[in-house]
Amino acid sequence: MTDLQKTLEDALEENALAGAVAMIGDRDGLLASAAAGVSDPATGRTMALDDIFSVASMTKAITSVAAMQLVERGLLALDEPIGPILPELAHPDLLEGFDEDGNARLSPAKTPITLRHLLTHTSGLGYSFTSGKMAKAQGKVAPGSIASISSPLIFEPGSDWLYGVSTDWVGRAVESVSGQTLGAYMEEHILAPLAMHDTGFSVPPEKVGRRVSLLSRTEDGFAPISLEIGGGDDAEFQSGGGGLYSTAADYMQFMRMILNQGTLDGVRILDAETVATMSRNHVGSMKVGRMESVVPFLAETFDPFPDMDTQWGLGFLINPEKGPAGRAAGSLSWAGLANCYYWIDPASGVAGLVLMQFFPFGDKSAMKVLDAVETAAYQG
Question: How does pLDDT run across 367-380, given as a tens digit for each residue?
């Protein structure tokens, strides 16, 4: 393996980025780790391996695992209507368009939403920053409110793919059938068993000093921005789609569990058959993985494999062909809004991640850092 520390330092310098943490692991443990740059440009604090990041949509994989644990226990089912568990989704409306006054034209959806639809982003729900139609139909809503994840459907469930709030509703389903908050359920059944002690829906006061500052790209470089991706302490729900804070080491524990078919250090989190199910394509030939953006300061249009017909499992993007930077076909991956990225490569037995903390998501410089780290993981 190429020297990861030098790779990360060089990539950050070449792309004029503040700081990052990167890690590479395999089924047996950690192979390499690196922290470079600064975690807070205002103070010059050096980035550290145990710094805490808002990992945003990297939360989705953990929420998906929580739901599949409950499928194993018979408390959730993949293909039954989710309405009895989530009454808010029992009778969704389909967005037909808008009248001349800008009011939404609605009709009842014909297909019940299922857990499989939610896990695969085929429910018809998007994000207001990935769908102009959804943003217009929603109107102005408070971040972290139930209204922010409520909307008419953009299409009939199961008929198309649109990245969005579906996994937030998966988290709500976990709460409904478990009788616990999502954070409490995760702590008991995933985080504590995997020794992910720095992961949760808030950062405790004694750890705030380890939190990486969130930045936004400007014409002059980067500026600090005050934004809680999961809604912060005033949120009406714990966001299963994007609310977790974590460290590189903690998330590596989760990825190594997936590499080991549901077990780590003698603790079983999922059955091997369940991990295999989550790792298979569940969307047929739908075009997935490309995320449009209608809010450019927050996210650029994102397509990690523009020359490939990617697939979606139960919580992960799947590349059916070898990736250009080294990952094998059948690898699982996704990302977080503030330029956090991970991949899990079962065929090669390797997992890797890069955590940064700035907008916009999908920034070309951030993607170059990811490519450099992934290339380093497979060299030598």
Answer: 999 999 999 999 96
Q: Taking phi first (over 0 means left), then psi (-120 to 50 degrees means alpha), and beta for anything else, what does residue 117 get? A: alpha
The dihedral built from the CA positions of residue 163, 164, 167 and 169, taken in this order, carries a sign that is negative
Lowest mean pLDDT of 23-27, 193-197, 231-235, 363-367, name the range: 231-235
Structure tokens at 30: 């950690």
Helices vs strands, H then E, count in the chain: 9, 17
Total domains in the chain come to 1
Active site includes 163? yes
Q: Which residues contact 43 (CB under 8 A, 6 or more apart)?
A: none
Q: Are 378 and 9 in contact (CB under 8 A)?
A: no
Tell me what pLDDT residue 234 has: 83
Q: What is the Cα–Cα distance from 333 to 353, expressed in whole angstroms?
A: 10
Are the C-beta atoms of 164 and 106 separated by less than 8 Å? no
Q: What confidence score (pLDDT) does residue 366 get?
A: 98
* CA distances from residue 45 to 38, 40, 250, 330 in whole angstroms, order as listed: 5, 5, 21, 39
- Taking only the tens place, the pLDDT of each residue in 161-206 is 999 999 999 999 999 999 999 999 999 999 999 999 999 999 999 9
Confirm whether 57 is a catalytic residue.
yes
Structural domain containing residue 150: 4-378
Q: How far apart are CA 323 and CA 210, in angstroms?
A: 33
Q: Of 54, 127, 163, 178, which residue is the catalytic one?
A: 163
Q: Which H or E run includes 342? A: strand 340-345
11-36 b/e (C-beta count within 10 Å ≥ 16 → b): bbeebebbbbbbbbbbeeeebbbbbb
Active-site residue, selected from the candidate residues 57, 213, 239, 331:
57
* Residue 135 scores a pLDDT above 80: yes
Q: What is the pLDDT of residue 272?
A: 98
Per annotation, catalytic residue among 60, 166, 185, 213: 60
Q: Supply the CATH number for residue 212's domain.
A: 3.40.710.10
Q: Whole-prediction pTM value?
A: 0.97
Type of residue numbered 25: G
